[in-house]
């Protein structure tokens, strides 16, 4: 078991609308099937999620925007925690178990 918590971000309507605003964007349907998973410090309870999000929402928000459009001029200017919560549902998973028998590698 890993000493991390997984956060899955599920885009809401404002994010979907932002994505659909770009011409020739055929990736919008992928939003329903493929979501980003982020590993954050381990937490035990949902009531600790707010504290974690205050620390990491900016990184998560920018990562999601960049994953779909790297042109920062298209990003919303003032990205706040409130906006993040308006744009994404956050799903929390506290038990992360690595069942692979090979080394965990960061490709970044």
Which descriptors apply to this entry?
108 residues; alpha+beta; 3-stranded antiparallel beta sheet; 3 helices; globular
Structure description:
With 108 residues, the protein is of the alpha+beta class. The protein has one domain (4-93). It is 32% helix and 19% strand. It has 3 helices and 3 strands; from the N terminus they run βαβααβ. It has a 3-stranded antiparallel β-sheet. The mean pLDDT is 88.
List the topology elements.
Elements: E1 4-11, H1 13-20, E2 36-41, H2 49-68, H3 81-87, E3 88-93
Antiparallel strand pairs: 1-2, 1-3
How much is the radius of gyration in Å? Answer: 15 Å
Number of helices: 3
- Placed side by side, the strands forming the largest sheet appear as 2-1-3
Distance between the termini: 22 Å
Poorly predicted segments: none
Query: What percent of residues are in strands?
Result: 15-25%
Largest sheet: 3 strands, antiparallel
Q: What is the count of structural domains?
A: 1
Q: Label the overall shape.
A: globular
Count all strands and give the number: 3
Percentage of residues assigned to helices: 25-40%
Helix/strand-derived class?
alpha+beta
Average pLDDT reading: 88
SSE sequence, one letter per element: EHEHHE
């Amino acid at each position: 078991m890993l000493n991390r918590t997984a956060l899955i971000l599920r885009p809401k309507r404002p994010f979907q609308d932002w994505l659909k605003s770009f011409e020739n964007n055929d990736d919008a349907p992928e939003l329903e099937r493929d979501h980003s998973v982020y590993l954050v410090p381990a937490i035990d309870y949902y009531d600790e999620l707010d504290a974690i999000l205050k620390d990491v929402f900016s990184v998560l928000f920018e990562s999601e925007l960049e994953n779909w459009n790297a042109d920062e001029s298209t990003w919303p200017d003032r990205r706040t925690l409130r906006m993040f919560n308006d744009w994404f549902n956050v799903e929390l998973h506290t038990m992360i178990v690595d069942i692979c028998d090979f080394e965990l590698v960061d490709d970044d």
